[in-house]
Amino acid sequence: MARIETLKNELKNQAISAALITQNVDIFYFTGSMQNGLLYVPVAGDPIFYVKKSVVRASEESSIEVEPLGRMRTLGDRIKAHFGKPSILGLELDVLPYQLGVRYQQMLNTEIKDISSLIRLQRSVKSEYEQTQIRKAAHLVDEVIQLLPSWISIDMTEVELAAKIEQYLRVRGNINLNRMRGYNQELALGMIASGSAAATPTYFDGPAGGLGLTVASPQGASYKKLAKNEPILLDFSTVVEGYMVDQTRIAVIGSLQDDLLQAYEVSRNILREVEKLGKPGVSWESLYQHALQMVEQAGLQAHFMGFGDDQAKFLGHGVGMEIDELPILANGFKQSLQENMVIAIEPKFTFPGRGVVGIENTYVVKSDGLESLSISSEAIIVVEG
Amino acid sequence: MARIETLKNELKNQAISAALITQNVDIFYFTGSMQNGLLYVPVAGDPIFYVKKSVVRASEESSIEVEPLGRMRTLGDRIKAHFGKPSILGLELDVLPYQLGVRYQQMLNTEIKDISSLIRLQRSVKSEYEQTQIRKAAHLVDEVIQLLPSWISIDMTEVELAAKIEQYLRVRGNINLNRMRGYNQELALGMIASGSAAATPTYFDGPAGGLGLTVASPQGASYKKLAKNEPILLDFSTVVEGYMVDQTRIAVIGSLQDDLLQAYEVSRNILREVEKLGKPGVSWESLYQHALQMVEQAGLQAHFMGFGDDQAKFLGHGVGMEIDELPILANGFKQSLQENMVIAIEPKFTFPGRGVVGIENTYVVKSDGLESLSISSEAIIVVEG
């Protein structure tokens, strides 16, 4: 219920009378249950989780009082009878479909206001429990990293490697869903992509691309075979109790050319610098700007986070139950880091026709800088070719 | 461009001046590309696909003229300068987030109208090409069905079986995304669940449930071990070039009790009946109602499509690039079947504590009834125990 109290305070600060929480991940965050329903949180009084399906299961899981949702058309009157009519209703307008937004507004016949930033900001600061789940995820990802030298071979396709990683993680708790909050954003495990295929730009809001298996999902692993002396991008996550870690390492069959190795070293140096800088009170954008300076000093700005028109203009992103959480390390984000925010930081360099090199760790913000939750060796994984 | 012409005619019929298509799947349907952008379709004149990322890749893939999207704040003026100001703008208000709906409405300073039903109805009728992809998916799913007797064993967990199926399909083109249009709906491959775990209700809008691996994704495969004489529900799909098939079969290690076998036969009989009834012109709800009569005659109404308060009240759903397409075979849907609609029909019976039995085929509506795209034997898969 501490999470509900924090939410209530934030609502009060913004003069919002109540929140109607509708998104499955946010509902899970506040109730402990992901059953299908609507969570009503008044600024004054106890919240109610109105559940459509399954009421039995929600009652077992939820820390909030559960009531059957019943008929949708009577819900508005029930809420008004129990809580009074809210003068301003908060909704997650970043994810709630327009149709439903109108419906809930009419149901309570009230003014509506977006509370998505407020919820996303609250969720960006992780509890000890949440950090523990992400640490567990980081350990599982590291198990894969340690097995990769025995898995990678010159005859296999990118998707064969991806499928092997997926199977290993799946039976160890991966739900096979990499949740993203952004409209139209999708992710299957991550990006297992090599050489020129990895450098192919995509619609995905990230630095790496991937040919993908089809134009109907044009990103990530493809049928391209792993080849000698090309960087193999191993950007993947796993999910433990709903919480993800995000990590990138590079492998090669044979060896990489010097300029790629140098770019990889720059990406590691960027991590070392931002680990020291990333303290509570420091602005999100300043970490991006500092990285950009280092990139320019190395003369690599044309390759940073993509190439040409397809460069992504950020350095890192919050990670938790969604892979695109706050904070966002990019220009224009003047907010401050807070203790216990969890951030994936991923300096990468794209060389068209040749591949992507770079690194990514998931960190937690502590009083004296960033602590890495990722535990994998940062050395390039070299496989005999 | 035939798809664009159909859309234009529908817009004209509803007195809508232009559509702004925003959802990735709809964009792919109309352009042939799934790059990140916005598709503007005027009733009069040629459409333009404004692409944010990747412009290069969209230009190669799209059958529609591509222009770089550029700065979002100037897009409205560019559209108005090129096409004139639309008096009514159509948007996919079933999926478009509220925030974005408001933004696009303000960008073109116009009245907006929901065109999601119109687009979903158009997409429900499949071309020969689309049917071919679904047939290919059905063949891959059947390869798995034929392998299952050698894969299933009494020591394995549900998720181990799911992971094996996933790996097999993944390297053969599965994009590892089972797209759903409904808000908050998610699906990882399907439901591989056995005995009491399969009968556990979930938030998912379907007949079967599944314990899942965690409360943070409470559906589908769990750590439960496959046991003797329990129905093993094998409800899964695969994706070929973005198109899915949906199919369910039942396996057992040992044998099933008579009442479960009888319920399974009822589900097969329902399929035989609706195959004959499902012709162009027949209402969607009539197929559900006919099935319901057969279920009542068999005295199984308490078990149909879930149990107790958690019963799902439908018989089948359209399937294509999303698993929850039109038509919906349920009460209240008085629309008529049209030739070449593709529908997954899935009569199932839930026995709490014991399991789920039932069957599902994907069909295409032809002039003389339903033609099955699923090719798997309908016999229960029996494994020696």
UniProtKB/TrEMBL annotation, chains A, B:
Chain ranges of the Peptidase M24 domain: 133-366
Record Pfam families: Creatinase_N, Peptidase_M24
Domain of life: Bacteria
Classification via InterPro entries: Creatin/AminoP/Spt16_N, Creatinase/aminopeptidase-like, Creatinase_N, Pept_M24, Peptidase_M24B
Name of the protein: M24 family metallopeptidase
SUPFAM superfamilies to which the protein is assigned, alphabetical: Creatinase/aminopeptidase (SSF55920), Creatinase/prolidase N-terminal domain (SSF53092)
CDD domains according to UniProt: APP_MetAP
Occurrences of domain Creatinase N-terminal (ranges): 3-125
